[in-house]
């Protein structure tokens, strides 16, 4: 018997060709223009299992709806709430809280479903484990059906696709050499780096003039930064890093605000909190937005009003965060089409 081809995972865009990225981007925009009433049956008799190890509003609902609107069935499992707690490490004596290993759980779910979506955030205790995506990769290895990353330790590819489509739509496709500012913002918690990593890589892939603005001590991973710089350079763009938020906003076409914790959190949460407190003033204000070229304001959401960004910005015509969230549905449809080999 012929060996089956390996499942078409979507773990991150870096593992897929430019051609696949472009195809998914085009399909996302096509779905957007068809609107949310455009239901079909192209994925009839397919099933999607969604495993959430962490909370979600947009990713969960947009993925469930995308499946249903393509004619598929979706089930959501909140791991540890009505399911067994799962162990992922190999070779451990399972005499703790976890009653089931992912080898069995994912192996079983692969028998039932035609694809699995997984949200599993960073440990924020073991940087190498997070950087190497050991949990998501262990799940992908245990699966015999496509696995879709719904936000992992280091990447959020579904968000990145929706963000790229939002920017292309907003700027009428004219993105090259336009300034994209990824601005760090204060947050009371040390958030993981998946969204800023993916936003940086996404803007670099679009060939934009990317400026990452963050206070000293909040550097993104050097490997991610190097890849973004190489991707941008290959497309006529550039990535620079500055520590001055106001300077970064000068002439911007897109402002993408995001909070993330310092890597110091991995070794000393207390020292990281003290460092982060020093930058409470890093907040997107109307004064900062006035330095831009009528830039659009983006945020992946959820966002803390008047902590990350002022009401006056979020409630202004420059804010496109709701449209950005709307694009999540259309991006999820494009991703399901890709992993399931569906015709356009
Ligand atoms: N942006 C995003 O992934 O939102 P949720 O965490 O609500 O899914």
From TrEMBL:
Chain ranges of the Aspartate/ornithine carbamoyltransferase carbamoyl-P binding domain: 8-167
InterPro entries named among the record's database cross-references: Asp/Orn_carbamoyltranf_P-bd (IPR006132), Asp/Orn_carbamoylTrfase (IPR006130), Asp/Orn_carbamoylTrfase_sf (IPR036901), Asp_carbamoyltransf_Asp/Orn-bd (IPR006131)
Highest taxon listed in the record's lineage: Bacteria
Entry keyword Transferase: yes
Residue spans crossing the bilayer: none
Gene Ontology molecular function: any one: ornithine carbamoyltransferase activity
Biological process annotations from GO: citrulline biosynthetic process; L-arginine biosynthetic process via ornithine
UniProt xrefs under Gene3D superfamilies: Aspartate/ornithine carbamoyltransferase
Keywords from the UniProt entry: Transferase
Similarity comment: family membership: Belongs to the aspartate/ornithine carbamoyltransferase superfamily.
This protein's name: N-acetylornithine carbamoyltransferase
């Amino acid at each position: 018997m012929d060996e089956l081809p390996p499942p078409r995972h979507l773990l991150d865009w870096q593992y897929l060709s430019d051609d696949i990225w472009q195809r998914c981007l085009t399909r996302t925009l096509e779905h957007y223009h068809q609107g949310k009433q455009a239901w079909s049956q192209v994925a009839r008799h397919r099933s999607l299992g969604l495993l959430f190890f962490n909370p979600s509003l947009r990713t969960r609902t947009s993925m469930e709806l995308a499946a249903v609107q393509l004619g598929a069935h979706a089930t959501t499992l909140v791991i540890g709430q009505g399911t067994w707690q799962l162990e992922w490490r190999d070779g451990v004596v399972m005499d703790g809280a976890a009653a089931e290993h992912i080898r069995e759980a994912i192996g079983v779910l692969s028998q039932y479903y035609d694809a699995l979506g997984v949200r599993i955030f960073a440990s924020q205790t073991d940087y190498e484990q997070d950087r190497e995506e050991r949990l998501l990769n262990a799940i992908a290895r245990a699966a015999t059906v496509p696995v879709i990353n719904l936000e992992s330790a280091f990447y959020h590819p579904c968000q990145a696709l929706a963000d790229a489509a939002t920017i292309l739509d907003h700027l009428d496709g004219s993105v090259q050499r336009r300034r994209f500012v990824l601005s760090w913002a204060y947050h009371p918690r040390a958030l993981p780096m998946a969204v800023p990593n993916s936003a940086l890589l996404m803007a670099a892939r679009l060939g934009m003039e990317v400026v990452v603005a963050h206070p000293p001590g909040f550097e993104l991973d050097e490997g991610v930064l190097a890849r973004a710089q190489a991707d941008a350079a290959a497309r006529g763009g550039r990535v620079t890093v500055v520590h001055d938020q106001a300077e970064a906003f000068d002439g911007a076409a897109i402002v993408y605000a995001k909070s993330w914790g310092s890597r110091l959190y991995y070794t000393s949460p207390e020292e990281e909190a003290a460092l982060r407190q020093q930058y409470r003033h890093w907040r997107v204000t109307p004064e900062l937005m006035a330095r831009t070229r009528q830039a659009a304001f983006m945020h992946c959401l959820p966002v803390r009003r008047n902590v990350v960004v002022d009401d006056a910005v979020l409630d202004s015509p420059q804010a496109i965060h709701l449209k950005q969230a709307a694009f999540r549905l259309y991006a999820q449809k494009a991703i399901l089409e890709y992993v399931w080999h569906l015709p356009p």
